[in-house]
Amino acid sequence: MDYYSVREIEGKQAHDPLFTHKMSNNKSSSSLRRCVCVRGPVIVGAGPSGLAVAACLKEKGLQSVLLERSNCIASLWQLKTYDRLRLHLPKQFCELPLMGFPCDFPTYPTKQQFICYLVSYAERYGIKPRFNETVKEAEFDSTLGFWRVRSESKTGTTTEYVCQWLVVATGENAEAVMPKIEGAEEFGGPIKHTSLYKSGEELRGKKVLVVGCGNSGMEVCLDLCNHNASPSLVVRDAVHVLPREVLGKSTFGLSMWLLKWLPIRLVDRFLLVVSWLLLGDTARLGLVRPGVGPLQLKNLSGKTPVLDVGTLSKIKSGHIQVCPGVKRLKHRTVEFVDGTTQNFDAIIFATGYKSNVPSWLQEGDMFCEEDGFPRRPFPNSWKGENGLYAVGFTKRGILGASMDAKRIAQDIEQCRKSEAKQSTAFTRSLWQQQSNS
Ligand SMILES: Cc1cc2nc3c(=O)[nH]c(=O)nc-3n(C[C@H](O)[C@H](O)[C@H](O)COP(=O)(O)OP(=O)(O)OC[C@H]3O[C@@H](n4cnc5c(N)ncnc54)[C@H](O)[C@@H]3O)c2cc1C
Protein backbone atom coordinates (compact mmCIF):
# COMPACT_ATOMS: atom_id res chain seq x y z
CA MET A 1 0.00 0.00 0.00
CA ASP A 2 1.45 3.32 -1.07
CA TYR A 3 1.22 5.43 2.01
CA TYR A 4 3.58 6.18 4.78
CA SER A 5 2.27 6.24 8.26
CA VAL A 6 3.84 9.42 9.37
CA ARG A 7 4.85 9.70 12.92
CA GLU A 8 7.27 12.20 11.50
CA ILE A 9 4.42 14.20 9.94
CA GLU A 10 2.51 14.02 13.19
CA GLY A 11 5.55 15.57 14.83
CA LYS A 12 5.79 18.29 12.21
CA GLN A 13 2.08 18.98 12.40
CA ALA A 14 2.25 19.32 16.16
CA HIS A 15 4.43 22.36 15.54
CA ASP A 16 2.24 23.66 12.75
CA PRO A 17 0.00 26.30 14.38
CA LEU A 18 -2.59 25.97 11.67
CA PHE A 19 -2.81 22.24 12.07
CA THR A 20 -3.11 22.23 15.85
CA HIS A 21 -5.72 24.96 15.66
CA LYS A 22 -7.80 22.89 13.29
CA MET A 23 -7.52 19.82 15.44
CA SER A 24 -8.56 21.60 18.59
CA ASN A 25 -11.69 22.78 16.81
CA ASN A 26 -12.45 19.22 15.87
CA LYS A 27 -15.01 17.60 18.19
CA SER A 28 -13.25 14.24 18.11
CA SER A 29 -9.71 15.53 18.45
CA SER A 30 -9.28 13.68 21.73
CA SER A 31 -9.65 10.28 20.01
CA LEU A 32 -7.33 11.09 17.07
CA ARG A 33 -4.50 8.59 17.14
CA ARG A 34 -2.91 8.38 13.71
CA CYS A 35 -2.30 10.57 10.73
CA VAL A 36 -1.53 8.92 7.41
CA CYS A 37 -0.30 10.84 4.42
CA VAL A 38 -1.41 9.15 1.21
CA ARG A 39 0.46 9.71 -2.05
CA GLY A 40 -2.36 8.52 -4.30
CA PRO A 41 -6.13 8.90 -3.97
CA VAL A 42 -8.22 7.73 -1.02
CA ILE A 43 -11.25 5.76 -2.18
CA VAL A 44 -14.18 5.43 0.24
CA GLY A 45 -16.16 2.20 -0.23
CA ALA A 46 -15.00 -1.20 -1.50
CA GLY A 47 -18.08 -2.13 -3.52
CA PRO A 48 -17.88 -2.76 -7.27
CA SER A 49 -17.35 0.99 -7.89
CA GLY A 50 -14.45 1.41 -5.46
CA LEU A 51 -12.80 -1.78 -6.75
CA ALA A 52 -13.17 -0.57 -10.35
CA VAL A 53 -11.41 2.74 -9.62
CA ALA A 54 -8.64 1.03 -7.65
CA ALA A 55 -8.06 -1.44 -10.52
CA CYS A 56 -8.04 1.26 -13.23
CA LEU A 57 -5.54 3.27 -11.18
CA LYS A 58 -3.38 0.20 -10.58
CA GLU A 59 -3.32 -0.52 -14.31
CA LYS A 60 -1.83 2.95 -14.78
CA GLY A 61 0.75 2.30 -12.11
CA LEU A 62 -1.02 4.43 -9.49
CA GLN A 63 -1.63 3.20 -5.96
CA SER A 64 -4.61 4.11 -3.82
CA VAL A 65 -5.93 3.55 -0.31
CA LEU A 66 -9.35 1.94 -0.17
CA LEU A 67 -11.40 2.34 3.03
CA GLU A 68 -14.36 0.04 3.73
CA ARG A 69 -16.66 0.13 6.75
CA SER A 70 -17.53 -3.58 6.69
CA ASN A 71 -15.27 -6.63 6.90
CA CYS A 72 -15.42 -7.65 3.24
CA ILE A 73 -15.51 -6.30 -0.31
CA ALA A 74 -18.92 -5.74 -1.95
CA SER A 75 -20.70 -5.80 1.40
CA LEU A 76 -24.04 -4.97 -0.22
CA TRP A 77 -23.84 -8.17 -2.24
CA GLN A 78 -22.25 -10.35 0.44
CA LEU A 79 -24.23 -9.25 3.48
CA LYS A 80 -27.40 -7.46 2.44
CA THR A 81 -28.98 -9.38 -0.41
CA TYR A 82 -31.31 -12.37 -0.56
CA ASP A 83 -30.14 -15.84 -1.54
CA ARG A 84 -32.04 -16.19 -4.84
CA LEU A 85 -30.66 -12.94 -6.26
CA ARG A 86 -29.14 -12.98 -9.73
CA LEU A 87 -27.88 -10.02 -11.70
CA HIS A 88 -30.94 -8.26 -13.09
CA LEU A 89 -29.11 -7.38 -16.30
CA PRO A 90 -27.15 -9.70 -18.61
CA LYS A 91 -23.52 -10.16 -17.58
CA GLN A 92 -22.05 -8.09 -20.44
CA PHE A 93 -23.73 -5.02 -18.90
CA CYS A 94 -22.39 -5.69 -15.41
CA GLU A 95 -18.67 -6.12 -16.07
CA LEU A 96 -16.08 -4.03 -14.32
CA PRO A 97 -13.36 -2.43 -16.47
CA LEU A 98 -10.38 -4.55 -17.60
CA MET A 99 -11.79 -7.98 -16.71
CA GLY A 100 -14.80 -9.78 -18.16
CA PHE A 101 -16.88 -12.51 -16.55
CA PRO A 102 -15.72 -16.10 -17.04
CA CYS A 103 -17.22 -17.57 -20.25
CA ASP A 104 -18.90 -20.40 -18.35
CA PHE A 105 -20.98 -17.98 -16.24
CA PRO A 106 -24.65 -17.89 -17.25
CA THR A 107 -26.20 -14.79 -18.86
CA TYR A 108 -27.57 -13.74 -15.47
CA PRO A 109 -24.91 -14.76 -12.91
CA THR A 110 -26.07 -15.71 -9.43
CA LYS A 111 -25.18 -13.52 -6.47
CA GLN A 112 -22.48 -16.07 -5.44
CA GLN A 113 -20.97 -16.04 -8.94
CA PHE A 114 -20.93 -12.26 -8.99
CA ILE A 115 -19.20 -12.18 -5.60
CA CYS A 116 -16.61 -14.74 -6.84
CA TYR A 117 -16.00 -12.50 -9.87
CA LEU A 118 -15.43 -9.47 -7.62
CA VAL A 119 -13.10 -11.42 -5.32
CA SER A 120 -10.99 -12.57 -8.31
CA TYR A 121 -11.04 -9.00 -9.63
CA ALA A 122 -9.66 -7.65 -6.35
CA GLU A 123 -7.04 -10.42 -6.30
CA ARG A 124 -5.95 -9.83 -9.89
CA TYR A 125 -5.28 -6.14 -9.21
CA GLY A 126 -3.84 -6.71 -5.75
CA ILE A 127 -6.55 -4.59 -4.14
CA LYS A 128 -6.39 -4.83 -0.36
CA PRO A 129 -8.97 -2.55 1.26
CA ARG A 130 -8.58 -1.39 4.84
CA PHE A 131 -11.62 -3.15 6.30
CA ASN A 132 -13.71 -2.09 9.31
CA GLU A 133 -12.86 1.57 8.78
CA THR A 134 -15.89 3.82 8.51
CA VAL A 135 -15.28 7.27 7.09
CA LYS A 136 -16.95 9.70 9.46
CA GLU A 137 -15.79 12.97 8.01
CA ALA A 138 -13.95 14.34 4.98
CA GLU A 139 -13.13 17.94 4.29
CA PHE A 140 -10.91 19.87 1.88
CA ASP A 141 -8.32 21.91 3.72
CA SER A 142 -7.88 24.89 1.43
CA THR A 143 -4.83 26.12 3.34
CA LEU A 144 -2.95 22.87 2.88
CA GLY A 145 -4.56 22.11 -0.49
CA PHE A 146 -5.34 18.54 0.61
CA TRP A 147 -8.33 16.47 1.70
CA ARG A 148 -8.51 15.36 5.29
CA VAL A 149 -10.43 12.09 5.62
CA ARG A 150 -11.21 10.87 9.13
CA SER A 151 -12.11 7.22 9.66
CA GLU A 152 -13.05 5.24 12.73
CA SER A 153 -12.27 1.56 13.18
CA LYS A 154 -14.45 -0.93 15.05
CA THR A 155 -12.00 -0.81 17.95
CA GLY A 156 -12.42 2.95 18.19
CA THR A 157 -9.12 3.96 16.58
CA THR A 158 -9.41 7.17 14.61
CA THR A 159 -7.17 7.74 11.62
CA GLU A 160 -6.82 10.86 9.56
CA TYR A 161 -5.77 10.37 5.96
CA VAL A 162 -4.36 13.37 4.15
CA CYS A 163 -4.60 13.11 0.38
CA GLN A 164 -4.70 15.05 -2.86
CA TRP A 165 -7.60 13.10 -4.40
CA LEU A 166 -10.75 11.77 -2.78
CA VAL A 167 -12.99 9.27 -4.58
CA VAL A 168 -16.49 8.81 -3.17
CA ALA A 169 -17.59 5.20 -3.83
CA THR A 170 -20.05 4.67 -0.98
CA GLY A 171 -22.87 3.87 -3.39
CA GLU A 172 -26.48 4.76 -4.05
CA ASN A 173 -27.50 2.02 -1.62
CA ALA A 174 -25.48 2.89 1.48
CA GLU A 175 -28.37 2.99 3.98
CA ALA A 176 -31.66 1.09 4.01
CA VAL A 177 -34.79 3.27 3.86
CA MET A 178 -37.46 2.22 6.39
CA PRO A 179 -40.59 4.40 6.33
CA LYS A 180 -42.15 5.28 9.66
CA ILE A 181 -45.61 3.75 9.88
CA GLU A 182 -48.06 4.52 12.64
CA GLY A 183 -48.54 1.64 15.05
CA ALA A 184 -45.38 -0.26 14.02
CA GLU A 185 -44.58 -0.96 17.69
CA GLU A 186 -48.02 -2.59 18.17
CA PHE A 187 -47.66 -5.03 15.27
CA GLY A 188 -45.89 -7.72 17.29
CA GLY A 189 -44.55 -9.79 14.35
CA PRO A 190 -41.25 -9.51 12.50
CA ILE A 191 -40.79 -6.30 10.52
CA LYS A 192 -37.62 -6.09 8.42
CA HIS A 193 -36.02 -4.42 5.41
CA THR A 194 -35.13 -6.52 2.35
CA SER A 195 -31.46 -5.94 3.22
CA LEU A 196 -32.02 -8.40 6.11
CA TYR A 197 -34.16 -10.88 4.16
CA LYS A 198 -32.33 -14.01 3.03
CA SER A 199 -34.93 -16.59 2.00
CA GLY A 200 -38.64 -17.41 2.22
CA GLU A 201 -37.66 -20.49 4.21
CA GLU A 202 -37.84 -18.47 7.43
CA LEU A 203 -41.48 -17.49 6.64
CA ARG A 204 -42.85 -20.79 5.31
CA GLY A 205 -46.63 -20.98 5.80
CA LYS A 206 -46.86 -17.36 6.98
CA LYS A 207 -48.91 -14.46 5.65
CA VAL A 208 -46.40 -11.80 4.67
CA LEU A 209 -46.91 -8.24 3.50
CA VAL A 210 -44.20 -6.92 1.17
CA VAL A 211 -44.17 -3.11 0.96
CA GLY A 212 -42.71 -1.74 -2.29
CA CYS A 213 -42.96 -3.00 -5.84
CA GLY A 214 -39.49 -2.45 -7.31
CA ASN A 215 -37.32 -5.32 -8.51
CA SER A 216 -36.55 -6.42 -4.92
CA GLY A 217 -40.18 -6.32 -3.70
CA MET A 218 -41.40 -8.30 -6.71
CA GLU A 219 -38.64 -10.88 -6.38
CA VAL A 220 -39.07 -11.32 -2.63
CA CYS A 221 -42.80 -12.01 -3.24
CA LEU A 222 -41.86 -14.70 -5.77
CA ASP A 223 -39.37 -16.21 -3.33
CA LEU A 224 -42.01 -16.28 -0.59
CA CYS A 225 -44.43 -18.05 -2.97
CA ASN A 226 -41.77 -20.61 -3.80
CA HIS A 227 -41.43 -21.32 -0.07
CA ASN A 228 -45.17 -21.78 0.44
CA ALA A 229 -45.71 -18.50 2.24
CA SER A 230 -48.68 -16.27 1.28
CA PRO A 231 -47.32 -12.87 0.19
CA SER A 232 -49.26 -9.68 -0.52
CA LEU A 233 -47.61 -6.80 -2.35
CA VAL A 234 -48.27 -3.16 -1.52
CA VAL A 235 -48.36 -1.11 -4.73
CA ARG A 236 -48.76 2.60 -4.02
CA ASP A 237 -47.31 4.21 -7.13
CA ALA A 238 -47.49 3.57 -10.85
CA VAL A 239 -44.84 1.13 -12.08
CA HIS A 240 -43.50 -0.17 -15.38
CA VAL A 241 -43.13 -3.93 -15.47
CA LEU A 242 -41.27 -5.23 -18.53
CA PRO A 243 -40.48 -8.80 -19.58
CA ARG A 244 -36.85 -9.60 -18.77
CA GLU A 245 -36.43 -11.03 -22.27
CA VAL A 246 -38.10 -10.60 -25.64
CA LEU A 247 -37.81 -13.56 -28.03
CA GLY A 248 -34.79 -14.84 -26.13
CA LYS A 249 -33.01 -11.44 -26.19
CA SER A 250 -32.56 -9.34 -23.07
CA THR A 251 -35.02 -6.42 -23.01
CA PHE A 252 -32.27 -4.17 -21.66
CA GLY A 253 -29.81 -5.14 -24.41
CA LEU A 254 -32.49 -4.75 -27.06
CA SER A 255 -33.38 -1.28 -25.75
CA MET A 256 -29.72 -0.20 -25.80
CA TRP A 257 -29.42 -1.42 -29.38
CA LEU A 258 -32.62 0.29 -30.53
CA LEU A 259 -31.54 3.56 -28.90
CA LYS A 260 -28.65 3.69 -31.36
CA TRP A 261 -31.13 4.13 -34.21
CA LEU A 262 -34.35 5.43 -32.74
CA PRO A 263 -35.38 8.27 -30.42
CA ILE A 264 -36.15 7.27 -26.82
CA ARG A 265 -39.87 7.99 -27.35
CA LEU A 266 -40.14 5.34 -30.06
CA VAL A 267 -38.11 2.79 -28.11
CA ASP A 268 -40.45 3.33 -25.16
CA ARG A 269 -43.44 2.78 -27.41
CA PHE A 270 -41.87 -0.45 -28.69
CA LEU A 271 -41.25 -1.62 -25.09
CA LEU A 272 -44.83 -0.89 -24.08
CA VAL A 273 -46.29 -2.76 -27.05
CA VAL A 274 -44.04 -5.77 -26.46
CA SER A 275 -44.86 -5.74 -22.73
CA TRP A 276 -48.56 -5.62 -23.48
CA LEU A 277 -48.23 -8.57 -25.87
CA LEU A 278 -46.13 -10.68 -23.49
CA LEU A 279 -47.48 -9.67 -20.09
CA GLY A 280 -50.95 -8.34 -20.85
CA ASP A 281 -52.53 -5.27 -19.28
CA THR A 282 -50.73 -4.94 -15.94
CA ALA A 283 -53.22 -2.28 -14.76
CA ARG A 284 -55.83 -5.04 -14.50
CA LEU A 285 -53.59 -6.67 -11.90
CA GLY A 286 -53.29 -3.44 -9.91
CA LEU A 287 -49.98 -2.38 -11.48
CA VAL A 288 -50.87 0.85 -13.29
CA ARG A 289 -48.21 2.17 -15.69
CA PRO A 290 -46.85 5.72 -15.32
CA GLY A 291 -47.81 8.27 -18.01
CA VAL A 292 -44.16 8.54 -19.11
CA GLY A 293 -42.47 5.60 -20.91
CA PRO A 294 -39.99 3.36 -19.01
CA LEU A 295 -36.75 4.72 -20.47
CA GLN A 296 -37.84 8.35 -20.36
CA LEU A 297 -38.93 7.88 -16.74
CA LYS A 298 -35.55 6.34 -15.92
CA ASN A 299 -33.83 9.36 -17.47
CA LEU A 300 -36.07 11.87 -15.74
CA SER A 301 -36.33 10.39 -12.25
CA GLY A 302 -33.87 7.49 -12.10
CA LYS A 303 -36.78 5.11 -11.42
CA THR A 304 -35.84 1.68 -12.76
CA PRO A 305 -38.49 -0.42 -14.54
CA VAL A 306 -39.17 -3.80 -12.99
CA LEU A 307 -37.90 -6.72 -15.07
CA ASP A 308 -40.33 -9.55 -14.49
CA VAL A 309 -38.78 -12.86 -13.44
CA GLY A 310 -42.07 -14.69 -12.88
CA THR A 311 -43.87 -12.60 -10.24
CA LEU A 312 -46.59 -11.41 -12.63
CA SER A 313 -47.81 -14.93 -13.34
CA LYS A 314 -48.08 -15.51 -9.57
CA ILE A 315 -50.17 -12.34 -9.28
CA LYS A 316 -52.35 -13.54 -12.18
CA SER A 317 -52.83 -16.94 -10.56
CA GLY A 318 -53.81 -15.29 -7.26
CA HIS A 319 -50.78 -16.59 -5.32
CA ILE A 320 -49.73 -12.97 -4.72
CA GLN A 321 -52.33 -10.41 -3.77
CA VAL A 322 -51.92 -6.73 -4.68
CA CYS A 323 -52.83 -4.24 -1.91
CA PRO A 324 -53.07 -0.43 -1.68
CA GLY A 325 -50.84 1.73 0.56
CA VAL A 326 -50.57 1.01 4.29
CA LYS A 327 -52.33 3.45 6.61
CA ARG A 328 -51.41 2.05 10.02
CA LEU A 329 -50.50 -1.13 11.87
CA LYS A 330 -52.21 -2.80 14.80
CA HIS A 331 -51.50 -6.11 16.52
CA ARG A 332 -50.77 -8.52 13.62
CA THR A 333 -53.11 -6.39 11.51
CA VAL A 334 -52.57 -3.94 8.66
CA GLU A 335 -55.05 -1.20 7.88
CA PHE A 336 -54.82 -0.01 4.26
CA VAL A 337 -55.54 3.47 2.90
CA ASP A 338 -58.81 2.25 1.37
CA GLY A 339 -60.07 1.40 4.88
CA THR A 340 -59.79 -2.41 4.55
CA THR A 341 -57.83 -4.46 7.10
CA GLN A 342 -56.02 -7.80 6.90
CA ASN A 343 -54.04 -9.97 9.28
CA PHE A 344 -50.36 -10.64 8.61
CA ASP A 345 -47.59 -12.55 10.41
CA ALA A 346 -44.69 -10.48 9.08
CA ILE A 347 -43.89 -7.37 7.08
CA ILE A 348 -40.95 -6.85 4.70
CA PHE A 349 -40.05 -3.38 3.53
CA ALA A 350 -38.71 -3.34 -0.02
CA THR A 351 -38.47 0.41 0.22
CA GLY A 352 -35.00 0.88 -1.18
CA TYR A 353 -31.87 2.61 -0.06
CA LYS A 354 -30.28 6.03 0.08
CA SER A 355 -26.84 7.57 -0.24
CA ASN A 356 -25.03 8.47 3.00
CA VAL A 357 -22.63 11.04 1.51
CA PRO A 358 -24.09 14.14 3.27
CA SER A 359 -23.51 12.45 6.65
CA TRP A 360 -19.71 12.45 6.23
CA LEU A 361 -18.58 14.67 3.34
CA GLN A 362 -18.27 18.34 4.27
CA GLU A 363 -18.68 19.83 0.84
CA GLY A 364 -21.36 22.03 -0.62
CA ASP A 365 -20.85 22.02 -4.38
CA MET A 366 -20.64 18.60 -5.93
CA PHE A 367 -23.13 16.63 -3.84
CA CYS A 368 -26.72 17.59 -3.11
CA GLU A 369 -27.50 17.77 0.63
CA GLU A 370 -31.01 16.33 0.18
CA ASP A 371 -30.36 13.09 -1.66
CA GLY A 372 -26.57 12.67 -1.41
CA PHE A 373 -26.17 12.39 -5.20
CA PRO A 374 -23.95 14.55 -7.41
CA ARG A 375 -25.84 17.64 -8.56
CA ARG A 376 -24.66 17.31 -12.16
CA PRO A 377 -26.41 14.53 -14.03
CA PHE A 378 -24.78 11.68 -15.93
CA PRO A 379 -22.38 11.74 -17.79
CA ASN A 380 -20.89 14.70 -15.86
CA SER A 381 -21.47 13.48 -12.33
CA TRP A 382 -18.01 11.98 -11.78
CA LYS A 383 -15.84 15.04 -11.22
CA GLY A 384 -15.95 17.84 -8.66
CA GLU A 385 -13.48 20.49 -7.50
CA ASN A 386 -10.15 20.12 -5.71
CA GLY A 387 -9.57 16.50 -6.68
CA LEU A 388 -12.98 15.22 -5.58
CA TYR A 389 -14.58 12.41 -7.61
CA ALA A 390 -17.76 10.32 -7.47
CA VAL A 391 -18.11 6.80 -8.85
CA GLY A 392 -21.33 4.79 -9.00
CA PHE A 393 -23.89 7.58 -8.61
CA THR A 394 -25.26 7.49 -12.14
CA LYS A 395 -28.44 5.42 -11.48
CA ARG A 396 -27.09 3.19 -14.22
CA GLY A 397 -25.81 0.28 -12.13
CA ILE A 398 -22.42 -1.29 -12.69
CA LEU A 399 -22.26 -0.13 -16.30
CA GLY A 400 -22.39 3.52 -15.16
CA ALA A 401 -19.86 2.84 -12.38
CA SER A 402 -17.41 1.32 -14.87
CA MET A 403 -17.63 4.38 -17.09
CA ASP A 404 -16.99 6.66 -14.11
CA ALA A 405 -14.07 4.55 -12.91
CA LYS A 406 -12.23 4.75 -16.24
CA ARG A 407 -12.68 8.52 -16.48
CA ILE A 408 -11.52 9.09 -12.90
CA ALA A 409 -8.35 7.01 -13.32
CA GLN A 410 -7.56 8.79 -16.58
CA ASP A 411 -8.08 12.21 -14.99
CA ILE A 412 -5.86 11.44 -12.00
CA GLU A 413 -3.17 10.03 -14.29
CA GLN A 414 -3.24 13.22 -16.39
CA CYS A 415 -3.05 15.35 -13.28
CA ARG A 416 -0.04 13.32 -12.07
CA LYS A 417 1.67 13.68 -15.45
CA SER A 418 1.16 17.43 -15.68
CA GLU A 419 2.42 17.82 -12.09
CA ALA A 420 5.49 15.77 -13.00
CA LYS A 421 6.08 18.00 -16.06
CA GLN A 422 5.76 21.14 -13.96
CA SER A 423 8.14 19.89 -11.32
CA THR A 424 10.68 18.87 -14.03
CA ALA A 425 10.42 22.34 -15.59
CA PHE A 426 10.85 23.89 -12.15
CA THR A 427 13.93 21.78 -11.38
CA ARG A 428 15.39 22.61 -14.81
CA SER A 429 14.95 26.35 -14.29
CA LEU A 430 16.59 26.06 -10.85
CA TRP A 431 19.55 24.26 -12.43
CA GLN A 432 19.77 26.93 -15.11
CA GLN A 433 19.66 29.74 -12.55
CA GLN A 434 22.39 28.03 -10.53
CA SER A 435 24.65 27.45 -13.55
CA ASN A 436 24.14 31.09 -14.73
CA SER A 437 25.10 32.56 -11.38
C1 LIG B 1 -30.84 -6.20 -4.80
C2 LIG B 1 -30.02 -5.42 -5.77
C3 LIG B 1 -29.75 -5.95 -7.04
C4 LIG B 1 -29.00 -5.22 -7.97
N1 LIG B 1 -28.74 -5.76 -9.20
C5 LIG B 1 -27.99 -5.07 -10.09
C6 LIG B 1 -27.67 -5.62 -11.36
O1 LIG B 1 -28.08 -6.70 -11.72
N2 LIG B 1 -26.91 -4.88 -12.21
C7 LIG B 1 -26.42 -3.65 -11.86
O2 LIG B 1 -25.72 -3.04 -12.66
N3 LIG B 1 -26.71 -3.11 -10.65
C8 LIG B 1 -27.47 -3.78 -9.77
N4 LIG B 1 -27.77 -3.23 -8.54
C9 LIG B 1 -27.28 -1.92 -8.21
C10 LIG B 1 -26.03 -2.17 -7.38
O3 LIG B 1 -26.19 -1.67 -6.09
C11 LIG B 1 -24.86 -1.56 -7.93
O4 LIG B 1 -24.74 -1.74 -9.30
C12 LIG B 1 -23.54 -1.91 -7.23
O5 LIG B 1 -23.57 -2.67 -6.04
C13 LIG B 1 -23.05 -0.56 -6.91
O6 LIG B 1 -21.77 -0.66 -6.44
P1 LIG B 1 -21.15 0.51 -5.54
O7 LIG B 1 -19.77 0.08 -5.26
O8 LIG B 1 -21.39 1.81 -6.19
O9 LIG B 1 -22.05 0.53 -4.23
P2 LIG B 1 -22.13 -0.62 -3.08
O10 LIG B 1 -22.15 -1.97 -3.69
O11 LIG B 1 -23.28 -0.23 -2.22
O12 LIG B 1 -20.76 -0.43 -2.30
C14 LIG B 1 -20.48 0.69 -1.50
C15 LIG B 1 -19.54 0.29 -0.39
O13 LIG B 1 -19.23 1.45 0.38
C16 LIG B 1 -19.20 1.10 1.75
N5 LIG B 1 -19.43 2.32 2.56
C17 LIG B 1 -20.56 3.06 2.63
N6 LIG B 1 -20.38 4.11 3.45
C18 LIG B 1 -19.10 4.05 3.90
C19 LIG B 1 -18.32 4.86 4.77
N7 LIG B 1 -18.81 5.96 5.33
N8 LIG B 1 -17.04 4.49 5.02
C20 LIG B 1 -16.50 3.38 4.45
N9 LIG B 1 -17.21 2.57 3.61
C21 LIG B 1 -18.49 2.90 3.34
C22 LIG B 1 -20.29 0.07 1.89
O14 LIG B 1 -20.12 -0.73 3.04
C23 LIG B 1 -20.17 -0.69 0.57
O15 LIG B 1 -19.33 -1.83 0.71
C24 LIG B 1 -28.51 -3.94 -7.61
C25 LIG B 1 -28.78 -3.43 -6.32
C26 LIG B 1 -29.51 -4.15 -5.42
C27 LIG B 1 -29.79 -3.57 -4.06
Total domain modules: 2
Molecular shape: globular
Instruction: Estimate what percentage of residues fall within beta strands.
Output: 15-25%
Gyration radius, rounded: 25 Å
* Strand order of the biggest β-sheet: 1-2-7-6-5-23
What integer is the average pLDDT?
Answer: 91
Helix and strand composition category: alpha/beta
Task: Note the gap between the termini.
Answer: 43 Å
Helix content: 25-40%
Number of alpha- plus pi-helical segments? 12
Main beta-sheet annotation: 6 strands, mixed
Contiguous uncertain segments of 5+ residues? 1-30
- CATH fold title of the largest domain: FAD/NAD(P)-binding domain
CATH class category of the largest domain: Alpha Beta
CATH homologous superfamily of the largest domain - what is it? FAD/NAD(P)-binding domain
- Which compounds are bound in this model? flavin-adenine dinucleotide
CATH architecture term of the largest domain: 3-Layer(bba) Sandwich
Based on DSSP secondary structure assignment, what is the total number of beta strands?
24
How do the strands and helices of this protein lay out in sequence?
Elements lengths: L2 E3 L1 H8 L2 H9 L6 E7 L3 E3 L3 H12 L5 E3 L7 H5 L31 H14 L8 E9 L4 E8 L4 E6 L2 E3 L6 E2 L14 E3 L13 E5 L3 H12 L3 E5 L6 E3 L1 E2 L2 E2 H9 L4 H16 L14 H8 L4 E3 L2 H6 L4 E3 L2 E5 L2 E4 L4 E3 L2 E4 L3 E2 L2 H4 E2 L25 E3 L6 H40 L1
Parallel strand pairs: 2-7, 3-4, 3-8, 5-23, 8-24, 10-21, 11-12, 11-21, 12-17, 13-16
Antiparallel strand pairs: 1-2, 5-6, 6-7, 9-22, 14-15, 18-19, 19-20
Helix pairs in contact: 3-12, 7-8
Bound molecules: flavin-adenine dinucleotide (FAD).
